Amino acid sequence: MTIAPTAPPAPPEIEQLATVAARMAAAVETVVVGRPELVRTSLAVLLAGGHLLLEDVPGLGKTTLAKALARSIDCSVGRVQFTPDLLPSDLTGVTIFRPQTQEFEFRPGPVFAHVVIGDEINRASPKTQAALLECMQEAQATVDGTTYPLPRPFFVVATQNPVEMEGTYPLPEAQRDRFMARLSVGYPDALTEVELLDRNEDGDPLDTLQPVTHADEVQRLVGVARRLHASPAVKRYVVDLVSATRDDPGLRLGASPRASVQLLRAAKALAAIAGRDHVLPDDVQELAEPVLAHRLLPSTQARLSGRDTSDVVRSLLASVPVPSATPLAGARGRRAAP
Q1: With b meaning 16 or more CB within 10 Å and e meaning fewer, what string describes 8-32?
Q2: What's the pLDDT score for residue 163?
Q3: Contact 32, 68 (CB under 8 A)
Q4: Over 50: is that where the pLDDT of 78 sits?
């Protein structure tokens, strides 16, 4: 079966996406100080229609970044504090019986929001974590045999502490695979930390952050980003990178085909944020580690040698051949030879 190609976005659509992304970045950076690359990658995940996992030790601003992203959009927001006693119904909702009407009524849980902030997601049991699988993949939730659609856009931004810390559970592989990217916040440098003190001296900057766009516009821009042109050579490069993880001796679990799809979508969104109408190998390389590393499982030998999955992705980026030709900037509708 032949699939008809979708029409590429018009230059004004790309320009509008880049403008909205710039406004959102400026708003978030009033709260998240000194990490423009972190904010840009987070926005690429949002505009690619994916979900974001923020991992680092407590106190580095993971939840602050999640809240800032949510507040930059005029949309509904659900917040969940994951704890060991959290139940799946605490996420998806429950069906209750109303004696007055003699009818059952569904009370939706916090996942029925455009942006869902899952704080310390790996402190809940695997059973509760698994309640998000259907939500994140299919944008729907099934409760008591009835399936309910979730709002669009649907964006989960979750935080987690390293699994070595007390009271944490490792996320199931299936759930990690549903997060488009995993990012680490990291410690700020001295000058950035001084600026952070100045901004928080008179109150929380989050209190003054105002929305710069709305949910319908974000959903439309997700569609614009997905229609961006990616040449056959770039697509093959994505597949080669992902396939290489399945053959690397340092890994016992490589990346899935879902990883290929999400890496390309994220690269398209990153290109659109930069104002381009096509994807470059540079976009794929910039996002390869955030998109792929958390999906991989290292071999025993790799763990013993101190080599983690990020090291493996970086070595593959250095070894997998890069396409030698890409479409020219502004060549809307044209196709360059690979």
Answers
A1: bbeeebbebbbebbeebbebbbebb
A2: 61
A3: yes
A4: yes
The answer as to CATH 3.20.20.80 being correct for domain 9-85+117-124+151-227 is no
What count of other Cβ atoms lies within 10 Å of the Cβ of residue 80? 23
**Could you tell me which of 77, 79, 100 has the C-alpha nearest to residue 90?**
79
Paired tokens of 145: 């045999």
Give the tens place of pLDDT for each residue, 88-127.
Answer: 899 999 888 888 888 888 899 999 999 999 998 888 887 8
Assign domain 229-338 to its CATH architecture: Orthogonal Bundle (1.10)
More confident residue, 232 or 7: 232
Look up residue 246 and give its amino acid: R
* Domain positions in the chain: 9-85+117-124+151-227, 229-338
Q: How many residues does the chain have?
A: 338
pTM: 0.87
Chain position carrying tokens 């990020």: 310
| CA-based nearest residue to 279, from 296, 265, 289, 290 | 265
The one-letter code for the residue type at 61 is G
